[in-house]
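Recap from last week: sequence in, structure out.
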Amino acid sequence: MSDKLKDIKDTASDAVEIIRELGTPEVQASLENIRETAKIAKELVDSLKDPAIVANIENVRKTAESFEKSSARMETTVAELKSSGLLNEVKGAVGSARTAMDSFGQGKGMGDTMDALKEMLRSMSELIEEVKLTVASSHTKDIVKNVEASVRDTREIFSQESK
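Predicted structure tokens:
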């Protein structure tokens, strides 16, 4: 029986010591930190229940699914391009173009060719602008109608002569 009394006394003594330590400022500060952390966690859980957040999470999920589907389609496309041989043909064409550019680059003819191409493009642009202006002008001056009438008259003359 004395052992049991001694155990009860030791247990009571330990409980008193624990209660005394719970009252210390350090333990109180730790408990306050735990309480604040629990409060923040509860607020986060509550905010995750907000319909706007739920909708945003759903949108993120849909976006991730879309990326996965797009990735799968890209993989399929690349596999089809490889199997069709198109990529090899493009590689060959690029290699040929590089070889041609390198061979032009070794002589001085490349610069002259590029200048001629630039001049030709410039001339073509100017011609296109002139045609645009002429067409715009002809609409305002009924030139197109006059030309159409002349073409009709010419057809009539040739069709009468051939009869």
